[in-house]
Amino acid sequence: MRDHLLIRLRSNSTDCTWAALDGDGRLLGPVTSGPLDEAARAVSNERVIVLLPGSEVLTTQAAVPNVGQSRVRRMLPYLLEENFAEDVERLHFAVGKRLDSGNHAVSAITRAQLEIWLERLESAGVTPDAIYADTDGVPDTPSTLNLIVEGRCIYGRRPGQPAFVLEGLDLPEVYELLEAQSDDRSDLRHALIHVDEAAQREHRSGIAELQTRLSSVDVKSLADDLLQRLGATIVFQPGANLLQGRYAVKSDWGELLRPWRAAAGLLLAMVLVSLVAQGIDYVRLQREDQALTARLAASCEQQFSSARISVCAIEVSRRLSDAGQTTLASSETFLTTLATVAEYRGDDSTIEALSYRNRVMDLRLLVPNVPALDQFAQNVIRTDRFDVRIESTADSGTGIEGRVRVAANEP
Predict the structure, then answer these.
(1) Strands (DSSP E) along 215-299, which ranges?
(2) Is the per-residue pLDDT at 329 higher than 50?
């Protein structure tokens, strides 16, 4: 599984934090802070994921019809218009995967702000594969309220709900806001609070108050930078990637196909050699067939005064019959039947299919019209050697398709 390089950007700061994570969300090295161009130099073959400040991105959910993603993005401004004080025409919407609730994860940011971040990334030489709000990294734990304290900001997520970030409030105030959102508070009985040492000291009283109001409150120390906690969630449960629509990553097919050019060239050469060899065999066989046909026609003309092979076959059959080897009626074979059919088939008709069994030949003929099919049948009957029955006709669009049964007469 491909490794990831997470870069977390900060509002009002030129510095960022970054770290490499493996496919399971585990750190592959230390979390580093510094200018964005230093993070760009850390990129090798990892998938680059950029996290924007959650305070600049609204994350929510929406029930949308099962249509294409581009159509959903066009519908979202009208579905979510009442949720924004900002003019929705100035917002960029991104759609995430379908959630267990049936809704889709949705993120929205002003186009102007997103373009500022994209220009900053481009100037530093960073080409992201995906961009998410850092709030998307808050874990979603069943039946448990997750809260992460970082400085003056508190990140949180109710079970199955979009994540949020609030600034300047203490933990009891955040909890009261969540209580006021709905009458159902069953998902607020248990809380998991992530804090570093400084936050634990600052919010000691708030944590103690929540422990008296909730059924259980677990406090976990952020041993490493918050980036690891957010990144582990993003790797397995990503939100809505903001690089959609006009901001979608353009695939560099030339770069992707470059490692396969040699193999593709070799395969193409093999195909060309095979086609040339088959062409040579076809020409050789065609010439041999023409030579044999010419020799057979010459023999027929010498012996029977006709270069038509079908006439030759009939005459041979007749002479054998006259010689007493068998009667004409009983000597009918596949070849003599086929020769008769070929002789009386018009030049403007085609044998589409045939089968032969027990001295009976079933044909599917394509003729210009019904009279032509009837004329063929009458000509074969006049030989007094076959009984002909037209079993069906149908208009094929290019002529009349007739199913004909040609049976040798009994001796």
Answers:
(1) 216-221
(2) no
